[in-house]
Design brief:
Elements lengths: L1 H20 L1 H35 L5 H47 L2 H4 L2 H15 L12 H22 L14 H50 L2 H9 L3 H53 L7 H27 L2 H11 L22 E8 L9 E8 L4 E6 L5 H8 L7 E6 L2 E2 L5 H5 L2 E4 L10 H6 L6 H10 L3 H4 L23 H15 L3 E5 L7 H15 L3 E6 L10 E6 L2 E6 L1 H6 L4 H10 L4 H9 L1
Helix pairs in contact: 1-2, 1-11, 2-3, 2-6, 2-10, 5-7, 5-11, 6-10, 7-9, 7-10, 9-10, 15-17
This protein binds adenosine-5'-diphosphate.
């Protein structure tokens, strides 16, 4: 019972969500269900009236008007029904779109740490699978017109059947026994038992279904990944060069086999249930018809009314069977609804302040990383340990170190994609958690190592928006060194990057993509700018040149340069050496290189070996 109440509460919460998404859909479904439940009874009423005229009254005078009214009403109800259906489908399509937007919005705005969290991926995949396999989850609540229709049908049938029970058989009739109150009790008890039995059967189907879902979830993730890879430029190359087609084919075949196995086991179990329940229904229907016949023979009702009451019985029994299975089905959704709300409520974890960031013309922003340590959620190892760092305005800082030493993690903390596990980060002496997050983020331009450009036009990529200032975009592209290529673009700033959505789109090289990503950072014109090795794929000399050139462009902004190559950051005021999550050395290049026992010297020498001597000399001279 407790479980039942919990499910019911979840269902109510689900309907509140649908109401919040688009209230119209609930009204439309309600009216649609109501109208479609009433219409069959109207036609039953006319049939009964016609029969009564023919059998009881044996009069043909009123027959023509009744038949005309029946035809007119039939035409009208069809018209209303069709109109309603059209309206219902239109509103439903809009409401489902809004539901998807809500879900996608949630994915876009949720704390970044969830994006890197496997469990959250599984949760979202669970919701998708629920919708794909039989339209379950919140999705199902947009399709309840059948349930409403069945419910109203039940109510009307119950009223009619009660009336039948109340119509007494003549005292001298041999069928008087059917007026006995025990018959009513027997009827009610039979239906309660039927309801119980059908929900037990349905529970069994749900258990199989949840097993199917668990299997399907992993498959769906892999399937989604593989599908994304097939038409992907980058992986398209590897698929061909390494003959990965066979591997992908196997994934598809395995997925197909799992899905088939799952749907077969579902089908088998549902078929068995349908057979049992349908047989029971027909027995009940037979008993109902017999009851009506006996009532008529006993003189309790007119022969014409037999149509109404047999109709009421069949509507009641069919409605009852459909209602009970659909109601169990919709209640069975409550677990999925729980998952839906779990996903939708994820964002409340990160504390977000309201303090506005002081607007300073002099850009006097000072960032201080104070004794910060950090572990990724679900891991035991520190990715950063006791980091202390001060970034004052105009300072050029380099963070260097081997791969995996914690450089990117520090940037994630500075941009609050994660919060420190221990310690704090201060902006002008105040904990960054206290600031309005959007205002705080406006202080940063970051070019990540794995930056992404979108298959939209160039201007939108640089401005990261559909609103932009053309002049500033030109300046940023020029500063980033993209002018030469840009001059060849036929559609100027409106030229699409890549050809995913535009056959006139342009293909760009890795180096050109980096330049556009840098132009995006420059266009944002933030006081603090960070390059997190977007140039890692380039050779060390090119990286050094780009970094040095970039440093000229950023002028007096605060800049953080990250690289695993020490040579790229020689020009910086301060170089911080990271090793296994710790800051182990700091200072200028000339100072660090003199410490012959230091990590910096060791790395410098190790890396220098890879380049020809004259190149190294050329660097040092530049
Ligand atoms: P770097 O930028 O210096 O190459 P990172 O900051 O990316 O290094 O990584 C530091 C450490 O944190 C590495 O051991 C890495 O495996 C780990 N790490 C990075 N991202 C995650 C993550 N999302 N979850 C768990 N561990 C991570």
């Amino acid at each position: 019972m407790k479980q039942y109440r919990k499910r019911l509460n979840m269902l109510i919460q689900g309907f509140k969500e649908v109401y919040a998404i688009d209230a119209r859909i609930l009204y439309v479904l309600l009216i649609d269900g109501l109208v479609n439940a009433i219409f069959p009874f109207i036609s039953l009423l006319f049939t009964s009236m016609i029969l009564n005229q023919l059998i009881v009254e044996a009069s043909f005078d009123k027959l023509i008007p009744i038949i005309s009214m029946a035809l007119g009403t039939g035409f009208l109800t069809t018209l209303i029904s069709n109109g309603l259906r059209h309206y219902r489908e239109t509103i439903r399509a809009i409401a489902l779109d809004k539901k998807n937007v809500r879900l996608n919005k949630e994915s876009m705005f949720m704390d970044y740490e969830y994006i890197e969290n496997q469990k959250v991926h599984e949760l979202r995949s669970h919701l998708e699978i629920a919708e794909l396999t039989g339209g379950r989850g919140l999705y199902a609540l947009f399709f309840i017109e059948g349930l409403i229709k069945q419910f109203v049908t039940l109510i009307i049938s119950i009223v009619l059947i009660s009336n039948l029970f109340l119509s007494r058989v003549a005292n001298q009739s041999p069928f008087k026994f059917i007026d006995h109150p025990l018959i009513v009790v027997l009827f009610i008890a039979t239906f309660i038992l039927y309801f119980k039995y059908s929900s037990i059967l349905y529970q069994k189907v749900m258990i199989i279904l949840s097993k199917v879902m668990q299997e399907g979830e992993k498959g769906n993730n892999i399937f989604g990944f593989v599908l994304g890879q097939l038409f992907n430029y980058q992986s398209g190359k590897e698929i061909r060069v390494y003959h990965q087609q066979a591997l992908y084919k196997k994934v598809f075949m395995d997925m197909g086999a799992t899905a088939n196995k799952a749907s077969r086991s579902m089908e088998k179990s549902e078929n068995k249930n349908t057979l049992i329940l349908q047989s029971l229904i027909h027995v009940l229907l037979g008993i109902g018809f017999l009851f009506v016949a006996l009532k008529m023979l006993g003189g309790a009702i007119d022969p014409g009314e037999i149509v109404i009451y047999t109709g009421a019985f069949s509507n009641f029994i069919m409605g009852f069977s459909e209602f009970s299975s659909n109601f169990s089905r919709i209640l069975g959704n409550s677990e999925l609804l729980e998952k839906y709300f779990e996903f939708m409520n994820l964002k409340d974890v990160k504390p977000v302040g309201t303090l506005p960031v002081e607007k300073r013309v002099d850009n006097e922003y000072e960032l201080e990383v104070k004794d910060v340590s950090f572990k990724y959620p679900g891991t035991d190892e520190y990715a950063l340990k006791n980091v202390n760092l001060k970034l004052s305005i105009g300072k050029k800082v380099a963070i260097v170190g081997m791969n995996g030493s914690g450089k990117t993690t520090l940037i994630k903390l500075l941009s609050r994609l994660y919060d420190p596990t221990e310690g704090e980060i201060l902006l002008n002496g105040i904990d960054i958690k206290k600031y309005d997050y959007n205002e705080y983020l406006n202080l940063f331009s970051v070019v990540f190592q794995d930056f992404s450009l979108f298959s939209f036009d160039l201007a939108q990529n640089v401005a990261a928006s559909t609103d932009y200032d053309e002049k500033n975009i030109h300046v940023a592209l020029k500063q980033a060194g993209f002018s030469e290529r840009y001059d060849k673009f036929k559609n100027g700033l409106k030229t699409s990057l890549y050809q995913d959505f535009d056959k006139d789109g342009v293909e760009i090289s890795g180096g050109e993509a980096q330049k556009i990503a840098m132009a995006r950072a420059l266009y944002k014109d933030s006081p603090i700018i960070i390059l997190d090795e977007p140039t890692a794929a380039l050779d060390p000399i090119s990286e050094f040149k780009i970094y040095a050139n970039f440093n000229e462009i950023v002028g007096n902004k605060t800049a953080i340069y990250i690289s695993h190559r020490l040579s790229s950051c020689r020009f910086c005021d301060e170089i911080i050496v990271f090793d296994k999550g710790k800051m182990i050395q700091r200072g200028g290049h000339d100072h660090l290189i003199k410490d012959l026992n230091g990590k910096y010297y060791e790395l410098w020498n190790a890396q220098a070996q890879y380049y020809a001597e004259e190149e190294v000399e050329e660097w040092i001279l530049t």
